[in-house]
Amino acid sequence: MNRVGNSKIGLVVTYAFLILMVIVTLIPLLYTASASFKPNQEIVSGGAHLIPKNFTLANFVTAWTMGSSGGAGVGRKPVTFADYTVNSLILASLTTLGTITFTSLSAYCFQRGNFPGRKFLYLVFLATMFIAAGSITIFPIVQFMSKFKLNNLYGASIVQIFSTSAANLFLTMGYLKTISREIDEAAKIDGCSFFRTYYRIILPLSKPILATVALISFRSAWNDYLLPMVFTLGKTYQYPLVVGVVALKNFGGEGAAQYNLLMAGTMFSIVPIIVIYLSLNRFFIAGMTQGALKG
Amino acid sequence: MSIAVRKAKRAPWRKLDTVQSYAMISLSVIGLALFVIYPLGWTLRWCLFRYSGILAPRYVGFDNFIRIFSEGGARYWQAVGNTFIFAIGKLMVEIPLALLLAKLLSGALKGRSLFRSVFFMPSMLSVAVMGIVFFYLFGSYNGVVNEWISALGGQRIQWFGDGTLSMIVLMVTSVWQNFGINMLFFMTGLQSIPLEMNEAAAIDGASSWQQFFHITLPMLGPVTQMVVLNALLGSLKVTDLVLAMTNGAPNGKTEMMMSYTYKQFFSSIQSGTANNYGYAAALTIITACILGAITVIYLRVTRKGSELY
Q1: In terms of CATH architecture, what is A81-294?
Q2: How far does B34 lie from chain A, in Å, by closest CA?
Q3: What is the pTM of this model?
Q4: How far apart (Å, rounded) are the C-alpha atoms in residues B149 and A204?
Protein backbone atom coordinates (compact mmCIF):
# COMPACT_ATOMS: atom_id res chain seq x y z
CA MET A 1 0.00 0.00 0.00
CA ASN A 2 2.62 2.49 -0.97
CA ARG A 3 0.56 5.54 -1.81
CA VAL A 4 3.49 7.73 -2.70
CA GLY A 5 4.62 5.19 -5.21
CA ASN A 6 1.29 5.00 -6.99
CA SER A 7 2.37 7.05 -9.93
CA LYS A 8 5.50 6.46 -11.96
CA ILE A 9 7.02 9.78 -10.92
CA GLY A 10 6.30 9.00 -7.31
CA LEU A 11 8.06 5.67 -7.65
CA VAL A 12 11.13 7.29 -9.18
CA VAL A 13 11.24 9.90 -6.41
CA THR A 14 10.85 7.19 -3.79
CA TYR A 15 13.71 5.14 -5.19
CA ALA A 16 15.91 8.18 -5.64
CA PHE A 17 15.39 9.11 -2.00
CA LEU A 18 15.96 5.57 -0.76
CA ILE A 19 19.14 5.21 -2.79
CA LEU A 20 20.36 8.57 -1.50
CA MET A 21 19.77 7.30 2.03
CA VAL A 22 21.64 4.09 1.25
CA ILE A 23 24.61 6.18 0.10
CA VAL A 24 24.44 8.33 3.24
CA THR A 25 24.30 5.18 5.35
CA LEU A 26 27.20 3.46 3.65
CA ILE A 27 29.58 6.36 3.05
CA PRO A 28 31.09 6.50 6.56
CA LEU A 29 31.73 2.76 6.43
CA LEU A 30 33.17 2.88 2.92
CA TYR A 31 35.56 5.68 3.86
CA THR A 32 36.65 3.79 6.95
CA ALA A 33 37.38 0.73 4.84
CA SER A 34 39.14 2.85 2.23
CA ALA A 35 41.32 4.66 4.79
CA SER A 36 42.34 1.39 6.39
CA PHE A 37 44.00 0.41 3.10
CA LYS A 38 45.79 3.73 2.63
CA PRO A 39 49.25 4.58 3.96
CA ASN A 40 49.07 7.16 6.75
CA GLN A 41 50.68 9.79 4.54
CA GLU A 42 47.90 9.44 2.00
CA ILE A 43 45.21 9.81 4.70
CA VAL A 44 46.88 12.80 6.33
CA SER A 45 47.38 14.61 3.05
CA GLY A 46 43.64 14.42 2.50
CA GLY A 47 41.58 13.80 -0.59
CA ALA A 48 38.09 12.44 -0.93
CA HIS A 49 39.03 9.54 -3.19
CA LEU A 50 37.59 6.22 -2.11
CA ILE A 51 40.02 3.99 -4.01
CA PRO A 52 43.45 4.14 -2.31
CA LYS A 53 46.23 5.43 -4.61
CA ASN A 54 48.81 3.28 -2.84
CA PHE A 55 46.84 0.24 -1.76
CA THR A 56 48.46 -1.41 1.26
CA LEU A 57 47.75 -4.08 3.83
CA ALA A 58 50.51 -2.80 6.08
CA ASN A 59 48.09 -1.02 8.47
CA PHE A 60 46.44 -4.29 9.39
CA VAL A 61 49.75 -6.08 9.78
CA THR A 62 51.18 -3.28 11.94
CA ALA A 63 48.08 -3.00 14.11
CA TRP A 64 47.90 -6.76 14.53
CA THR A 65 51.55 -7.46 15.30
CA MET A 66 53.24 -4.33 16.59
CA GLY A 67 50.54 -2.46 18.37
CA SER A 68 50.24 1.24 18.78
CA SER A 69 52.99 3.31 20.30
CA GLY A 70 50.70 4.14 23.21
CA GLY A 71 50.10 0.52 23.97
CA ALA A 72 53.27 -0.76 25.60
CA GLY A 73 52.90 -1.54 29.29
CA VAL A 74 55.77 -1.55 31.77
CA GLY A 75 57.74 -4.77 31.53
CA ARG A 76 55.36 -6.23 29.01
CA LYS A 77 55.34 -6.92 25.34
CA PRO A 78 53.68 -4.13 23.34
CA VAL A 79 49.95 -4.61 23.35
CA THR A 80 48.62 -5.22 19.85
CA PHE A 81 45.22 -5.23 18.23
CA ALA A 82 45.48 -9.01 18.28
CA ASP A 83 45.33 -8.76 22.10
CA TYR A 84 42.40 -6.36 21.93
CA THR A 85 40.57 -8.73 19.60
CA VAL A 86 41.12 -11.69 21.93
CA ASN A 87 39.92 -9.57 24.86
CA SER A 88 36.80 -8.54 22.95
CA LEU A 89 36.10 -12.18 22.14
CA ILE A 90 36.55 -13.21 25.79
CA LEU A 91 34.36 -10.37 27.05
CA ALA A 92 31.56 -10.86 24.53
CA SER A 93 31.54 -14.67 24.80
CA LEU A 94 31.45 -14.72 28.60
CA THR A 95 28.73 -12.09 28.68
CA THR A 96 26.70 -13.94 26.07
CA LEU A 97 26.94 -17.27 27.90
CA GLY A 98 26.05 -15.69 31.23
CA THR A 99 23.20 -13.65 29.78
CA ILE A 100 21.47 -16.56 28.08
CA THR A 101 21.91 -18.76 31.17
CA PHE A 102 20.46 -16.27 33.62
CA THR A 103 17.84 -14.82 31.28
CA SER A 104 16.57 -18.28 30.50
CA LEU A 105 16.47 -19.33 34.17
CA SER A 106 14.69 -16.19 35.37
CA ALA A 107 12.25 -16.16 32.46
CA TYR A 108 11.31 -19.78 33.19
CA CYS A 109 10.92 -19.17 36.93
CA PHE A 110 8.71 -16.12 36.36
CA GLN A 111 6.68 -17.61 33.53
CA ARG A 112 6.13 -21.13 34.84
CA GLY A 113 6.98 -20.94 38.52
CA ASN A 114 4.44 -20.93 41.31
CA PHE A 115 6.63 -20.23 44.30
CA PRO A 116 5.75 -17.81 47.10
CA GLY A 117 6.97 -14.29 46.36
CA ARG A 118 7.13 -14.78 42.61
CA LYS A 119 4.98 -11.77 41.75
CA PHE A 120 6.82 -9.55 44.21
CA LEU A 121 10.20 -10.67 42.88
CA TYR A 122 9.08 -10.07 39.31
CA LEU A 123 8.05 -6.52 40.18
CA VAL A 124 11.41 -5.94 41.87
CA PHE A 125 13.15 -7.19 38.72
CA LEU A 126 11.14 -4.90 36.47
CA ALA A 127 11.52 -1.87 38.71
CA THR A 128 15.28 -2.22 39.12
CA MET A 129 15.85 -2.93 35.45
CA PHE A 130 14.06 0.28 34.57
CA ILE A 131 15.79 2.48 37.09
CA ALA A 132 19.25 1.13 36.26
CA ALA A 133 20.93 4.43 35.48
CA GLY A 134 23.81 2.97 33.48
CA SER A 135 26.96 4.98 33.20
CA ILE A 136 26.51 7.18 36.24
CA THR A 137 26.36 4.27 38.71
CA ILE A 138 29.53 2.64 37.41
CA PHE A 139 31.73 4.13 40.11
CA PRO A 140 30.28 2.33 43.16
CA ILE A 141 30.21 -0.88 41.14
CA VAL A 142 33.86 -0.74 40.12
CA GLN A 143 34.86 0.35 43.62
CA PHE A 144 33.01 -2.65 45.05
CA MET A 145 34.40 -5.09 42.48
CA SER A 146 37.97 -3.93 43.05
CA LYS A 147 37.69 -5.16 46.64
CA PHE A 148 37.48 -8.65 45.13
CA LYS A 149 40.24 -7.92 42.57
CA LEU A 150 37.56 -8.05 39.91
CA ASN A 151 38.25 -4.63 38.41
CA ASN A 152 39.28 -6.34 35.19
CA LEU A 153 37.86 -7.78 32.00
CA TYR A 154 36.11 -10.61 33.84
CA GLY A 155 34.54 -8.22 36.32
CA ALA A 156 33.25 -6.15 33.39
CA SER A 157 31.65 -9.28 31.97
CA ILE A 158 29.95 -10.11 35.28
CA VAL A 159 28.48 -6.62 35.48
CA GLN A 160 27.33 -6.80 31.85
CA ILE A 161 25.57 -10.10 32.56
CA PHE A 162 23.62 -8.88 35.56
CA SER A 163 22.79 -5.40 34.39
CA THR A 164 21.20 -6.87 31.27
CA SER A 165 18.19 -5.04 29.89
CA ALA A 166 14.62 -5.97 30.72
CA ALA A 167 14.12 -6.46 26.98
CA ASN A 168 15.88 -9.84 27.05
CA LEU A 169 13.68 -11.04 29.89
CA PHE A 170 10.48 -9.93 28.12
CA LEU A 171 11.58 -11.48 24.88
CA THR A 172 12.25 -14.85 26.50
CA MET A 173 9.10 -14.78 28.64
CA GLY A 174 7.04 -13.93 25.59
CA TYR A 175 8.48 -16.94 23.83
CA LEU A 176 7.88 -19.28 26.76
CA LYS A 177 4.24 -18.17 26.74
CA THR A 178 3.91 -19.67 23.27
CA ILE A 179 5.17 -23.08 24.43
CA SER A 180 2.10 -25.08 25.41
CA ARG A 181 1.80 -25.68 29.11
CA GLU A 182 0.47 -29.14 28.42
CA ILE A 183 3.96 -30.21 27.50
CA ASP A 184 5.44 -29.41 30.87
CA GLU A 185 2.28 -30.56 32.67
CA ALA A 186 2.77 -33.94 31.06
CA ALA A 187 6.40 -34.01 32.14
CA LYS A 188 5.40 -33.16 35.68
CA ILE A 189 2.83 -35.95 35.81
CA ASP A 190 5.57 -38.28 34.67
CA GLY A 191 7.47 -37.21 37.77
CA CYS A 192 9.73 -34.44 36.50
CA SER A 193 10.62 -31.79 39.06
CA PHE A 194 10.51 -28.05 38.26
CA PHE A 195 14.19 -27.95 37.34
CA ARG A 196 14.11 -31.23 35.41
CA THR A 197 11.18 -29.96 33.36
CA TYR A 198 13.24 -26.87 32.55
CA TYR A 199 16.39 -28.77 31.71
CA ARG A 200 14.76 -31.55 29.69
CA ILE A 201 11.81 -29.80 28.06
CA ILE A 202 11.78 -26.00 28.17
CA LEU A 203 15.46 -25.29 27.63
CA PRO A 204 15.71 -27.34 24.42
CA LEU A 205 12.43 -25.85 23.17
CA SER A 206 13.54 -22.28 23.81
CA LYS A 207 16.74 -22.57 21.77
CA PRO A 208 15.51 -20.23 18.98
CA ILE A 209 14.81 -17.34 21.34
CA LEU A 210 18.02 -17.93 23.26
CA ALA A 211 19.90 -17.72 19.98
CA THR A 212 18.35 -14.29 19.44
CA VAL A 213 19.19 -13.19 23.00
CA ALA A 214 22.73 -14.47 22.42
CA LEU A 215 23.10 -12.36 19.26
CA ILE A 216 21.79 -9.24 20.98
CA SER A 217 23.99 -9.63 24.04
CA PHE A 218 27.10 -10.54 22.04
CA ARG A 219 26.67 -7.41 19.97
CA SER A 220 26.12 -5.12 22.93
CA ALA A 221 29.02 -6.60 24.94
CA TRP A 222 31.33 -6.33 21.93
CA ASN A 223 30.32 -2.71 21.31
CA ASP A 224 30.29 -1.57 24.92
CA TYR A 225 32.73 1.22 25.75
CA LEU A 226 32.39 2.89 29.13
CA LEU A 227 32.02 -0.15 31.39
CA PRO A 228 34.99 -2.15 30.02
CA MET A 229 37.02 1.06 29.82
CA VAL A 230 36.50 1.80 33.50
CA PHE A 231 37.11 -1.81 34.50
CA THR A 232 40.36 -2.10 32.53
CA LEU A 233 41.63 1.38 33.39
CA GLY A 234 45.43 1.28 33.40
CA LYS A 235 45.55 -2.32 32.16
CA THR A 236 46.23 -1.85 28.47
CA TYR A 237 46.70 -5.57 27.94
CA GLN A 238 43.06 -6.16 28.94
CA TYR A 239 41.49 -3.57 26.63
CA PRO A 240 38.77 -4.82 24.33
CA LEU A 241 38.81 -3.44 20.77
CA VAL A 242 36.47 -0.51 21.32
CA VAL A 243 38.48 0.70 24.32
CA GLY A 244 41.71 0.20 22.42
CA VAL A 245 40.50 2.19 19.43
CA VAL A 246 39.32 5.13 21.54
CA ALA A 247 42.58 5.08 23.52
CA LEU A 248 44.56 5.24 20.28
CA LYS A 249 42.52 8.24 19.13
CA ASN A 250 42.96 10.07 22.45
CA PHE A 251 46.67 9.31 22.37
CA GLY A 252 47.12 10.89 18.97
CA GLY A 253 44.66 13.76 19.09
CA GLU A 254 43.52 15.41 15.90
CA GLY A 255 46.88 16.52 14.59
CA ALA A 256 49.43 13.73 14.71
CA ALA A 257 47.03 10.82 14.90
CA GLN A 258 48.01 7.49 13.41
CA TYR A 259 44.89 7.52 11.31
CA ASN A 260 45.93 4.42 9.41
CA LEU A 261 46.17 2.31 12.58
CA LEU A 262 43.02 3.93 13.92
CA MET A 263 41.08 2.94 10.84
CA ALA A 264 42.54 -0.57 10.76
CA GLY A 265 41.59 -0.99 14.42
CA THR A 266 38.11 0.31 13.65
CA MET A 267 37.82 -2.33 10.94
CA PHE A 268 38.79 -5.07 13.44
CA SER A 269 36.02 -3.79 15.67
CA ILE A 270 33.17 -3.29 13.19
CA VAL A 271 33.72 -5.91 10.48
CA PRO A 272 32.87 -8.96 12.67
CA ILE A 273 29.61 -7.31 13.75
CA ILE A 274 28.73 -6.35 10.16
CA VAL A 275 29.39 -9.92 8.99
CA ILE A 276 27.27 -11.41 11.78
CA TYR A 277 24.55 -8.86 11.14
CA LEU A 278 24.44 -9.41 7.38
CA SER A 279 24.23 -13.18 7.74
CA LEU A 280 21.67 -13.18 10.57
CA ASN A 281 19.86 -9.85 10.23
CA ARG A 282 16.41 -11.46 10.34
CA PHE A 283 17.02 -12.54 13.96
CA PHE A 284 18.50 -9.20 14.94
CA ILE A 285 15.58 -7.26 13.50
CA ALA A 286 12.95 -9.50 15.09
CA GLY A 287 14.73 -9.61 18.43
CA MET A 288 15.52 -5.92 18.77
CA THR A 289 12.01 -4.75 17.84
CA GLN A 290 9.99 -7.27 19.85
CA GLY A 291 11.99 -6.91 23.05
CA ALA A 292 11.96 -3.13 22.97
CA LEU A 293 8.32 -2.78 22.00
CA LYS A 294 7.16 -4.92 24.88
CA GLY A 295 9.41 -2.99 27.22
CA MET B 1 3.35 -7.82 30.42
CA SER B 2 1.19 -9.82 32.81
CA ILE B 3 2.26 -13.32 33.55
CA ALA B 4 -0.36 -15.95 33.05
CA VAL B 5 -1.11 -17.00 36.60
CA ARG B 6 -2.60 -20.38 35.97
CA LYS B 7 -2.39 -22.98 38.68
CA ALA B 8 -1.23 -26.40 37.61
CA LYS B 9 -4.36 -28.38 37.04
CA ARG B 10 -3.24 -31.90 37.56
CA ALA B 11 0.39 -31.88 38.51
CA PRO B 12 0.69 -30.35 41.97
CA TRP B 13 3.32 -27.77 42.85
CA ARG B 14 5.56 -29.37 45.44
CA LYS B 15 7.92 -28.07 48.06
CA LEU B 16 10.86 -29.37 46.08
CA ASP B 17 9.74 -27.20 43.16
CA THR B 18 9.76 -24.12 45.37
CA VAL B 19 13.23 -24.90 46.63
CA GLN B 20 14.42 -25.43 43.08
CA SER B 21 12.88 -22.16 41.85
CA TYR B 22 14.61 -20.20 44.57
CA ALA B 23 17.90 -21.89 43.74
CA MET B 24 17.44 -21.19 40.02
CA ILE B 25 16.67 -17.52 40.46
CA SER B 26 19.00 -16.81 43.38
CA LEU B 27 22.06 -15.81 41.35
CA SER B 28 20.05 -13.35 39.26
CA VAL B 29 18.61 -11.83 42.42
CA ILE B 30 22.06 -11.50 43.96
CA GLY B 31 23.38 -9.97 40.75
CA LEU B 32 20.57 -7.48 40.64
CA ALA B 33 21.10 -6.58 44.29
CA LEU B 34 24.84 -6.08 43.83
CA PHE B 35 24.90 -4.27 40.51
CA VAL B 36 21.66 -2.30 40.49
CA ILE B 37 20.32 -1.89 44.02
CA TYR B 38 23.63 -1.54 45.85
CA PRO B 39 24.90 1.35 43.64
CA LEU B 40 21.60 3.16 44.17
CA GLY B 41 21.88 2.79 47.93
CA TRP B 42 25.52 3.88 47.77
CA THR B 43 24.55 7.00 45.81
CA LEU B 44 21.74 7.88 48.21
CA ARG B 45 24.04 7.52 51.20
CA TRP B 46 27.16 9.32 50.01
CA CYS B 47 25.40 12.28 48.41
CA LEU B 48 25.17 13.68 51.92
CA PHE B 49 28.91 13.40 52.57
CA ARG B 50 32.12 15.05 51.60
CA TYR B 51 33.97 11.96 50.48
CA SER B 52 37.29 12.11 48.67
CA GLY B 53 38.45 8.54 49.13
CA ILE B 54 41.58 9.87 50.83
CA LEU B 55 40.39 11.81 53.90
CA ALA B 56 37.73 10.40 56.21
CA PRO B 57 34.22 11.06 54.85
CA ARG B 58 32.47 13.95 56.54
CA TYR B 59 28.69 14.37 56.80
CA VAL B 60 27.71 17.67 55.17
CA GLY B 61 23.93 17.39 54.89
CA PHE B 62 22.62 18.93 51.68
CA ASP B 63 25.77 20.93 50.95
CA ASN B 64 26.47 18.98 47.77
CA PHE B 65 23.01 19.77 46.44
CA ILE B 66 23.33 23.40 47.44
CA ARG B 67 26.59 23.53 45.48
CA ILE B 68 24.83 22.12 42.40
CA PHE B 69 22.16 24.81 42.60
CA SER B 70 24.63 27.61 43.22
CA GLU B 71 27.52 28.92 41.12
CA GLY B 72 29.56 25.77 41.61
CA GLY B 73 27.02 23.87 39.52
CA ALA B 74 27.19 26.18 36.50
CA ARG B 75 29.19 23.70 34.44
CA TYR B 76 26.70 20.97 35.20
CA TRP B 77 23.73 23.06 34.15
CA GLN B 78 25.58 24.04 30.99
CA ALA B 79 25.94 20.31 30.31
CA VAL B 80 22.24 19.77 31.01
CA GLY B 81 21.40 22.53 28.53
CA ASN B 82 23.73 20.99 25.94
CA THR B 83 22.09 17.61 26.45
CA PHE B 84 18.62 18.98 25.75
CA ILE B 85 19.81 20.92 22.70
CA PHE B 86 21.44 17.74 21.42
CA ALA B 87 18.44 15.52 22.11
CA ILE B 88 15.77 17.82 20.71
CA GLY B 89 17.86 18.86 17.73
CA LYS B 90 18.65 15.35 16.61
CA LEU B 91 15.15 13.97 17.27
CA MET B 92 13.61 16.67 15.07
CA VAL B 93 15.48 15.08 12.18
CA GLU B 94 15.66 11.47 13.31
CA ILE B 95 11.98 10.80 14.07
CA PRO B 96 10.44 12.28 10.89
CA LEU B 97 13.15 10.61 8.82
CA ALA B 98 12.48 7.25 10.47
CA LEU B 99 8.73 7.63 9.99
CA LEU B 100 9.09 8.63 6.34
CA LEU B 101 11.37 5.68 5.58
CA ALA B 102 9.06 3.31 7.44
CA LYS B 103 6.12 4.57 5.38
CA LEU B 104 8.03 4.20 2.11
CA LEU B 105 9.20 0.70 3.00
CA SER B 106 5.90 -0.56 4.36
CA GLY B 107 4.42 -1.12 0.92
CA ALA B 108 5.16 -3.79 -1.64
CA LEU B 109 8.27 -1.96 -2.79
CA LYS B 110 10.87 -4.02 -4.63
CA GLY B 111 14.03 -4.44 -2.58
CA ARG B 112 12.38 -3.29 0.64
CA SER B 113 14.06 -5.89 2.84
CA LEU B 114 17.45 -4.94 1.39
CA PHE B 115 16.82 -1.25 2.16
CA ARG B 116 15.62 -2.18 5.62
CA SER B 117 18.76 -4.21 6.34
CA VAL B 118 21.04 -1.42 5.14
CA PHE B 119 19.27 1.31 7.15
CA PHE B 120 19.36 -0.75 10.31
CA MET B 121 23.06 -1.61 10.00
CA PRO B 122 24.45 1.56 11.71
CA SER B 123 22.41 0.71 14.83
CA MET B 124 24.42 -2.48 15.13
CA LEU B 125 27.79 -0.77 15.43
CA SER B 126 29.63 0.56 18.45
CA VAL B 127 28.65 4.12 19.36
CA ALA B 128 32.16 4.96 20.55
CA VAL B 129 33.85 3.58 17.43
CA MET B 130 31.46 5.38 15.09
CA GLY B 131 32.17 8.54 17.07
CA ILE B 132 35.79 8.13 16.03
CA VAL B 133 34.88 7.41 12.42
CA PHE B 134 32.84 10.63 12.22
CA PHE B 135 35.63 12.48 14.02
CA TYR B 136 37.85 11.41 11.13
CA LEU B 137 35.25 12.22 8.44
CA PHE B 138 34.82 15.74 9.83
CA GLY B 139 38.54 16.26 10.50
CA SER B 140 39.82 19.79 9.83
CA TYR B 141 42.78 19.01 7.55
CA ASN B 142 42.19 15.58 6.10
CA GLY B 143 38.48 15.06 6.69
CA VAL B 144 36.41 13.84 3.78
CA VAL B 145 33.63 16.36 4.45
CA ASN B 146 36.06 19.26 4.19
CA GLU B 147 37.43 17.79 0.96
CA TRP B 148 33.94 17.88 -0.53
CA ILE B 149 33.38 21.41 0.70
CA SER B 150 36.61 22.66 -0.85
CA ALA B 151 35.92 20.71 -4.05
CA LEU B 152 32.63 22.64 -4.26
CA GLY B 153 34.56 25.86 -3.80
CA GLY B 154 33.80 26.44 -0.13
CA GLN B 155 36.07 27.20 2.82
CA ARG B 156 37.35 24.32 4.95
CA ILE B 157 35.56 24.30 8.29
CA GLN B 158 37.15 23.72 11.70
CA TRP B 159 34.31 21.46 12.83
CA PHE B 160 35.73 20.76 16.27
CA GLY B 161 36.93 24.27 17.00
CA ASP B 162 33.43 25.64 17.52
CA GLY B 163 30.77 24.59 20.02
CA THR B 164 27.81 24.80 17.66
CA LEU B 165 29.56 22.99 14.83
CA SER B 166 30.80 20.24 17.17
CA MET B 167 27.26 19.83 18.41
CA ILE B 168 26.02 19.51 14.84
CA VAL B 169 28.57 16.79 14.13
CA LEU B 170 27.46 14.94 17.27
CA MET B 171 23.84 15.19 16.14
CA VAL B 172 24.63 14.02 12.62
CA THR B 173 26.50 11.01 13.98
CA SER B 174 23.71 10.13 16.35
CA VAL B 175 20.99 10.49 13.71
CA TRP B 176 23.04 8.36 11.32
CA GLN B 177 23.28 5.67 13.94
CA ASN B 178 19.72 5.64 15.24
CA PHE B 179 17.27 6.39 12.44
CA GLY B 180 17.30 2.74 11.39
CA ILE B 181 16.09 1.26 14.63
CA ASN B 182 13.33 3.85 14.96
CA MET B 183 12.34 3.11 11.38
CA LEU B 184 11.97 -0.56 12.37
CA PHE B 185 9.74 0.35 15.32
CA PHE B 186 7.54 2.46 13.03
CA MET B 187 7.38 -0.36 10.48
CA THR B 188 6.15 -2.73 13.17
CA GLY B 189 3.55 -0.14 14.13
CA LEU B 190 2.43 0.40 10.53
CA GLN B 191 1.83 -3.32 10.09
CA SER B 192 -0.79 -3.23 12.82
CA ILE B 193 -2.96 -0.64 11.00
CA PRO B 194 -5.73 -2.42 9.09
CA LEU B 195 -5.49 -1.82 5.35
CA GLU B 196 -9.29 -1.48 5.12
CA MET B 197 -9.15 1.93 6.73
CA ASN B 198 -6.93 3.34 4.03
CA GLU B 199 -8.97 1.63 1.32
CA ALA B 200 -12.22 3.08 2.67
CA ALA B 201 -10.69 6.53 2.76
CA ALA B 202 -9.35 6.11 -0.76
CA ILE B 203 -12.84 5.24 -2.00
CA ASP B 204 -14.09 8.40 -0.32
CA GLY B 205 -11.53 10.29 -2.36
CA ALA B 206 -8.82 10.97 0.23
CA SER B 207 -5.39 11.55 -1.25
CA SER B 208 -2.47 9.51 0.01
CA TRP B 209 -1.15 12.46 2.03
CA GLN B 210 -4.59 13.01 3.57
CA GLN B 211 -4.73 9.35 4.46
CA PHE B 212 -1.28 9.54 5.99
CA PHE B 213 -2.08 12.54 8.18
CA HIS B 214 -5.65 11.64 9.10
CA ILE B 215 -5.48 7.86 9.42
CA THR B 216 -1.93 6.57 9.66
CA LEU B 217 -0.51 9.18 12.05
CA PRO B 218 -3.37 9.06 14.58
CA MET B 219 -3.43 5.27 14.44
CA LEU B 220 0.33 5.24 15.01
CA GLY B 221 -0.10 7.44 18.09
CA PRO B 222 0.76 4.86 20.78
CA VAL B 223 3.72 3.53 18.78
CA THR B 224 5.01 7.05 18.15
CA GLN B 225 4.65 7.85 21.83
CA MET B 226 6.81 4.84 22.73
CA VAL B 227 9.37 5.41 19.97
CA VAL B 228 9.85 9.09 20.82
CA LEU B 229 10.13 8.40 24.56
CA ASN B 230 12.66 5.65 23.92
CA ALA B 231 14.70 7.86 21.58
CA LEU B 232 14.43 10.88 23.88
CA LEU B 233 15.70 9.01 26.94
CA GLY B 234 18.43 7.36 24.86
CA SER B 235 19.58 10.77 23.60
CA LEU B 236 19.48 12.39 27.03
CA LYS B 237 21.68 9.56 28.31
CA VAL B 238 24.32 10.09 25.60
CA THR B 239 27.78 9.33 27.03
CA ASP B 240 29.98 7.11 24.87
CA LEU B 241 29.58 9.23 21.75
CA VAL B 242 30.72 12.43 23.50
CA LEU B 243 33.57 10.77 25.35
CA ALA B 244 34.90 9.21 22.16
CA MET B 245 34.38 12.13 19.81
CA THR B 246 34.72 15.55 21.45
CA ASN B 247 35.18 14.77 25.16
CA GLY B 248 33.28 17.97 25.90
CA ALA B 249 35.54 20.19 23.81
CA PRO B 250 35.68 23.03 23.00
CA ASN B 251 35.51 24.40 26.52
CA GLY B 252 32.64 22.26 27.78
CA LYS B 253 30.33 23.27 24.94
CA THR B 254 29.59 19.66 24.04
CA GLU B 255 29.72 18.26 27.56
CA MET B 256 26.58 16.30 28.37
CA MET B 257 24.78 15.62 31.62
CA MET B 258 25.89 11.98 31.86
CA SER B 259 29.45 12.52 30.65
CA TYR B 260 29.91 15.41 33.09
CA THR B 261 28.62 13.34 36.00
CA TYR B 262 30.81 10.43 34.97
CA LYS B 263 33.87 12.68 34.91
CA GLN B 264 33.16 13.95 38.41
CA PHE B 265 33.64 10.39 39.58
CA PHE B 266 36.65 9.48 37.51
CA SER B 267 38.60 12.68 36.93
CA SER B 268 40.99 11.98 39.83
CA ILE B 269 42.13 8.74 38.24
CA GLN B 270 42.92 10.61 35.04
CA SER B 271 44.23 13.89 36.44
CA GLY B 272 45.50 12.95 39.90
CA THR B 273 43.49 15.59 41.78
CA ALA B 274 41.18 14.70 44.67
CA ASN B 275 37.52 14.13 44.00
CA ASN B 276 34.41 14.70 45.96
CA TYR B 277 32.47 11.51 45.35
CA GLY B 278 29.67 12.92 47.47
CA TYR B 279 29.21 15.76 45.01
CA ALA B 280 29.28 13.31 42.11
CA ALA B 281 26.67 11.17 43.88
CA ALA B 282 24.47 14.26 44.28
CA LEU B 283 24.88 14.96 40.55
CA THR B 284 23.83 11.37 39.83
CA ILE B 285 20.65 11.87 41.84
CA ILE B 286 19.82 15.16 40.13
CA THR B 287 20.47 13.59 36.72
CA ALA B 288 18.24 10.62 37.55
CA CYS B 289 15.54 13.05 38.76
CA ILE B 290 15.76 15.02 35.50
CA LEU B 291 15.33 11.82 33.47
CA GLY B 292 12.43 10.71 35.68
CA ALA B 293 10.74 14.10 35.49
CA ILE B 294 11.09 14.21 31.70
CA THR B 295 9.49 10.77 31.44
CA VAL B 296 6.52 11.77 33.62
CA ILE B 297 6.02 15.13 31.87
CA TYR B 298 6.33 13.51 28.47
CA LEU B 299 3.76 10.84 29.26
CA ARG B 300 1.34 13.48 30.65
CA VAL B 301 1.67 15.77 27.66
CA THR B 302 1.40 13.03 25.07
CA ARG B 303 -1.61 11.50 26.81
CA LYS B 304 -3.38 14.86 26.51
CA GLY B 305 -2.35 15.00 22.89
CA SER B 306 -3.66 11.55 22.10
CA GLU B 307 -7.03 12.34 23.70
CA LEU B 308 -7.62 14.85 20.90
CA TYR B 309 -8.28 12.05 18.47
Answers
A1: Orthogonal Bundle (1.10)
A2: 8
A3: 0.90
A4: 57
